[in-house]
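The step that takes the researchers longest sounds almost clerical: writing a folded protein down as plain text. Below is the pair of lines this work produces for a single protein:

——
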Amino acid sequence: MDLFRSQVQHNMGFDARKTNGNYFMPLSKSDALLREINSLDRMRAQETVKIAVLYVGPGQWTEAEILSNTQQDTSQAYRSFVCSLGWPVDLATFSGYIGKLERDGSDGKTCPYFFDEGIEVVFHDATLMPTDKNDIRQIKKFLALDQSAFIDLGCLITDTVNFEISRNEERVVVAKSVSSKVDELREQFGDLNTILAEASAEMEEMAAVPVIAVYFPQLGFLSSIDIAYFSSDATIAPQLNDWELEFQTDQQRYYKNMLTDALDRSPGDVFTLVNGKHK
């Protein structure tokens, strides 16, 4: 014991003489101490977190409507999102953290779970839990939600998402005035026809042949010239100093030049930027 004490004092800086607050003293064995040690042994080394995941369908506002959704009521996008959170574990046999879910099937058969060296996360997906549409108290006790939370959630979603345009375009579209940056990018995208018309006129002067400025998401701005101007019997030869051919089709050739490079910098790849802000 004395050797152990001296090693601890030397390596960990404890002082057995009690001359300061950092001294080493053996604990007295007792039932209370054993209970504390057993409790300590049962504690997980990782932080444990449980997160509620809800699906809110179109026009759903009340907690009864939202909590009664099943997997069949959800969208493919929602199911893909839940799958990306972690991996499903069988509640009946899984030995890891499940956040007080029952293992007898009353809270569902599986739940999404994530684990790494520092944390365990269990996701309480309401759509995976058996639900009585007339009595949602069982599911509420796990999600710890109240009526005001659902009202706030509904208002936030309605104020943030333009549902009509989202349905038409089959993607989530942020409503106006939610983000000044999105509004600015959307305005730039709306002015694209004007930008392309002005660029076409300027590039025609550069090339001495008709040029159409075009924009492709991710590819950016390009200049398009009818391939007929490159045939051997063409009466006018394009003047393409410092123009770089990007690709061609049976009808057109597409180039980059100093003007398209400038447009790629500003306004830039507007459509992709807007979509990125919507996500």
